[in-house]
UniProtKB/TrEMBL annotation:
GO terms for biological process: 'de novo' IMP biosynthetic process. Its EC number is 6.3.5.3, 3.5.1.2. Keywords: ATP-binding, Cytoplasm, Glutamine amidotransferase, Hydrolase, Ligase, Nucleotide-binding, Purine biosynthesis. It catalyses: N(2)-formyl-N(1)-(5-phospho-beta-D-ribosyl)glycinamide + L-glutamine + ATP + H2O = 2-formamido-N(1)-(5-O-phospho-beta-D-ribosyl)acetamidine + L-glutamate + ADP + phosphate + H(+); L-glutamine + H2O = L-glutamate + NH4(+). This is Phosphoribosylformylglycinamidine synthase subunit PurQ. Pathway: Purine metabolism; IMP biosynthesis via de novo pathway; 5-amino-1-(5-phospho-D-ribosyl)imidazole from N(2)-formyl-N(1)-(5-phospho-D-ribosyl)glycinamide: step 1/2. The gene is purQ.
Amino acid sequence: MKAAILVFPGSNCDRDLQTAFEKAGADVTMVWHKDNALPAGTDIVGVPGGFSYGDYLRCGAIAANSPICGSLREHVARGGYALGICNGFQILTETRILPGALLRNADLKYLCKTVSLQVKTSDSDFTRAWNAGTELRIPIAHHEGNYRADAELMKQLEAEDRIAFTYNDNPNGSAGNVAGVLSENRRVLGMMPHPERAADEVLGGTDGRAMFTSLMNALVSA
């Protein structure tokens, strides 16, 4: 599996994501935001957490217009995989690769803690290692994690089984307790919690590790 991790000014989870992918067996390349192309043969693009471009304008808005995001859009349009975590999820909504928007947390406070999630669907290569209903403990670290979608979009996401994760105790006010959503072809996942920070015993938990091994298994067998 070949993974490309995008790096923006202000990214701070790129190395964490690199380690999680490498421990799952991936060959990882770090790709700078000013590059115009992804490495040949890229299977999955990781869009990491952090504060791309200092979170000016809106979180992810400037990053969404960087040169490398043109290649990200092309990669996804070809059916390639992408995983956006925290700021990466914000970038995926700003590029319109994923629907909805991420706004300020309901209490307007930055949140940094481990939360309880529920796996809502096992029908994706990101979540296939778990049964629907499985509970996970995954860290969050965000100020703008309040997922917003109108009633029509929420109905569509639910009908198409595209809500990947929900919060058990909604920390940020997200519509429908949404913590992560899938694209229509189920090959793009955006989520606010950080599975890469729960992928090794030394980090205090391993509930996020199965996501990376599941992706590895899917791509190796494809």
